[in-house]
Amino acid sequence: MAATTVTPAVPRPAARPATAAGPAGADAAAVKLALPLPVLHSTVLGWYEANARDLPWRTPEATPWAVMVSEFMLQQTPVKRVLPAWAAWLERWPTPAHLAAEAPGEAVRMWGRLGYPRRALRLHAAAVAITEEHGGEVPDDHATLLSLPGVGEYTAAAVASFAFRQRHVVLDTNVRRVFARAVTGVEYPAQATTAAERRTATALLPADTGTAATWAVAVMELGALVCTARGPECGDCPLFTACAWQRAGCPPYEGPARRGQSYEGTDRQVRGKLLAVLRAEHGTVEQARLDAVWPDPVQRARALDGLVADGLVEPVEQGVYRLPQ
C-alpha cells in the first residue's frame, strides 16, 4: 500500500530495500503496511482478544464436526440466523454418523429457512463420506477435507484452521475486504479471489501454527464487526492509521458494479415457498398444494424443476413430490 504511517504506539520504521532474508512476499507486505509483521499480528490479535464474539463453535468444547457444521451454515448467512439452527442441528445430529443415518431430505427439512438449501445436501453427503471413509471422524488433513463432497478451498482451510489449529490461509469475504482496504487501498476486493490476494494473505500469515489459526479468525472477526461492507466503523479499527484505504482518503469503489442480491419475486423466493410446503409434510405432497403458493404457473414450474434438478425434491409419480429419500 502507499501508506507510510503506523499506529501511534509504534515507531515509524525506516524504508528499506527488499533483501534476500525472509520470504519476498512477507517483506513486501510489511513495507506496504509500514508496520512490522509482529506488530501487525499483535495489534489485530489484541483487538480480537478484547472484542471477539462468544460463539459456541469457537469454544474449546466444540468438536470438529460442530465447526464444520458452522462453516457450512455461515456461508452467505448472518450469525444471528445461524445460531439457533446450528444448536438444533447439533442436538439432533451430534456426529456425522447420526446425520448419515438419516435420509438427505431430513437435512433439507432441518435446514429450515437458512437459505441456499443445497448446502444441506452437501453437508449430508460430507457426513456420509466421513462416516463411511473416515471412521466417523472429521479428517484433520487439509487435502482430505478438500476431497469431501461440498467442501471447497475456503471450508477446508477454515475447518483445518479453526477445528485443528493448523496454519492455513482462510479467505472469506470479510478477510478479503480487510486486506483490500488495509493493504491494497481499495474499498472492495475483486468479485472473485485473485492470485494477488492469496499472495498477500500468505505473506501476512504468522509463522507459528497456533498464532496463525487465531490470526485467521481474528481478521475475519475484524471484517465482520468493524471493517464491514457498508458503514465501516473505521474509528474503532486497530489498523486505522496504517490502513492504505484511509491514507488514500477512502476512495470510492471503481470496479464492476456490485449488485445486491434481490429476493422478492425471484425464483429463489418461489423455491423457498415450495420447499416450505414440502418441509412441513413428512410424506408426499400433491401438485395442487404446491400450485397454491405462487400465482405465476410458468415461474412456479421453473422453480420446481430447478429443485428437482438440484436433488432437493423428488418426483414420486405424476404430480406428487417429496423431499429426497
If you had to describe this structure to a student in words, what would you say it looks like?
By secondary structure, the chain is mainly alpha-helical. Helices cover 53% and strands 3% of the residues. The chain is built from 16 helices and three strands. The protein has helices at residues 24-33, 37-51, 64-74, 79-92, 96-100, 104-111, 118-133, 142-146, 153-164, 173-184, 195-204, 209-225, 244-247, 267-280, 287-291, 297-309, and strands at residues 285-286, 314-317, 320-322. The chain has a three-stranded antiparallel beta sheet with strand order 1-3-2. α3 runs antiparallel to α9 (153-164) and α6 packs across α7 (118-133). The radius of gyration is 23 Å and the shape is globular. The chain starts with 23 loop residues before the first helix and ends with a strand. The model is unreliable at 1-24 (pLDDT under 50).
Shape: globular
Count of DSSP helices?
A: 16
Order of helices and strands: HHHHHHHHHHHHHHEHHEE
β-strand percent reads under 5%
Strands of the biggest beta sheet: in what spatial order? 1-3-2
Q: How can the largest sheet be summarized?
A: 3 strands, antiparallel
Let me know the number of strands.
Answer: 3
Alpha-carbon distance between the two ends: 53 Å
Radius of gyration: 23 Å
Structural class given helices, strands, pairing? mainly alpha
The level of helicity is: 40-55%
